């Protein structure tokens, strides 16, 4: 039997690309995905049939996470890997205008839902010596204008990867930043949050990347995530935070 892999945020962007790449790399793989938008999940189901299963829901709701894990275990008897991809950028706001409830909401999506999903899936991941791949961001340790909530949530995620790898010897974990990728998140930066909340200089930088065709295609980092989930996280990078193009991950690149 092939690998059984859970992926969050599969309705578009990097998450959808991870699903496509997993199936292109290995015809035996089975994916259980989750997102809130039902139509794109139905499209994936139509395309991949009995290799793709989904739960429609918000990952901040523990019952949605339990449904995801339980349906994989009931349907295919195991979980080999988990890719925690779903994430949001907003609130994008300067520290002098912080809305702490908006920060809490972001943390619920970008951090606490992932802690919860790992804790729910951990007994199954231990049985398979499984892998947990966290989608981080360069913003975890670099300053981007008004991205305090987002960047700090990704830094917390990196630490969680390190903690998991050190405390649970039966599983491996890694946090990987995907680079700057041509998805809806970048559209939102260029057209909405950038003009309203970011510095003119940084907005210009993000717009310039698009204009000069320098954004990464989502298939590039998605290949790294898919291969880590499929082939397993090497001992040498277990618990680390790395960029998708770090030399230590060269075997996982397209
Ligand atoms: P995207 O196009 O906006 O896609 C985000 C995905 O997450 C969607 O499938 C969305 O599905 C899902 N999602 C968001 N909130 C959710 C929730 N509460 N419950 C369930 N699903 C939820 O973004 P992306 O660019 O592909 O980003 C994917 C990951 O890469 C994120 O963690 C992001 O922080 C990270 N990243 C992206 C970039 C970049 O340049 N694009 C750079 C660094 C890091 P629904 O809306 O259908 O629920």
Automatic annotation (TrEMBL):
CDD domains: SPR-like_SDR_c (cd05367)
Record-linked Pfam families: adh_short
Keywords: NADP, Oxidoreductase
SUPFAM superfamilies for this protein: NAD(P)-binding Rossmann-fold domains (SSF51735)
PROSITE patterns: ADH_SHORT
GO molecular function, one term: oxidoreductase activity, acting on NAD(P)H, oxygen as acceptor
Signal peptide: none
Cross-referenced InterPro entries: NAD(P)-bd_dom_sf, Sc_DH/Rdtase_CS, SDR_fam
Keyword DNA-binding: no
Record family assignment: Belongs to the short-chain dehydrogenases/reductases (SDR) family.
PANTHER family: BENZIL REDUCTASE, BENZIL REDUCTASE ((S)-BENZOIN FORMING) IRC24
Protein name: Sepiapterin reductase family protein
Organism: Saccharomyces paradoxus
